[in-house]
């Protein structure tokens, strides 16, 4: 390559081709895997507090819908009943798959700015939102980039709902004994 061609190549603006995770807010651990046309991350849930991801779009992300996937690991020691993603600055284009490790998906609903997963059997380990692990037959969720430009920002907020607390047997037994005692006292009073 001649000196002129090399200088010309270096002088051209470099077009980045990746959705860039610029920051997160929350207490959970995040590992970013985003790339050209893809917003992707692992979310390790140590607590069930919301986590917000801030992204900036680059030129390569605007060629079509932006693929979105996440591997969500439940490290909190509490079962997951529900999980949701909320979008700001971008919208869902098409729904993808949800693949739990041990739980069972009861329903998945999505609108322009939200996707909600309800587990009919709680998830204790992890699940894929989209196709984070490249499983045959699974599909990423798609985000609509129509009308957006390089440099535009958007956020994704992940939120969870813990499984309903089941009372300890001693608490349930105490409550049942109290109810039976009250019923017997009422019966004696009437009779």
Keywords:
disordered N terminus; 6-stranded antiparallel sheet; 7-stranded mixed sheet; signal; 16% helix; PEP-CTERM sorting domain-containing protein; 191 residues
Shape: globular
Number of helices: 2
Strand-pairing-aware structural class: alpha+beta
Rg computed from alpha carbons, rounded to a whole number of angstroms: 24 Å
- Average pLDDT reading: 83
The level of helicity is 10-25%
Order of helices and strands: HEEEEEEEEEEEEEH
Give the low-confidence spans.
Answer: 1-16, 165-180
Number of strands: 13
Signal peptide: 1-18
Protein name: PEP-CTERM sorting domain-containing protein
Organism: Massilia cellulosiltytica
Keywords: Signal
Your description of this structure?
- With 191 residues, the protein is of the alpha+beta class.
- The chain has one domain.
- It is built from 2 helices and 13 strands, in the order H-E-E-E-E-E-E-E-E-E-E-E-E-E-H.
- Strands 2, 3, 5, 7, 8, 11 and 12 form a 7-stranded mixed sheet that branches. Strands 1-4-13-6-10-9 form a 6-stranded antiparallel sheet, with no helix packed on it.
- Strand 9 and strand 10 (114-123) form a beta hairpin.
- It is globular, with a radius of gyration of 24 Å.
- Residues 1-16 and 165-180 have low confidence and may be disordered.
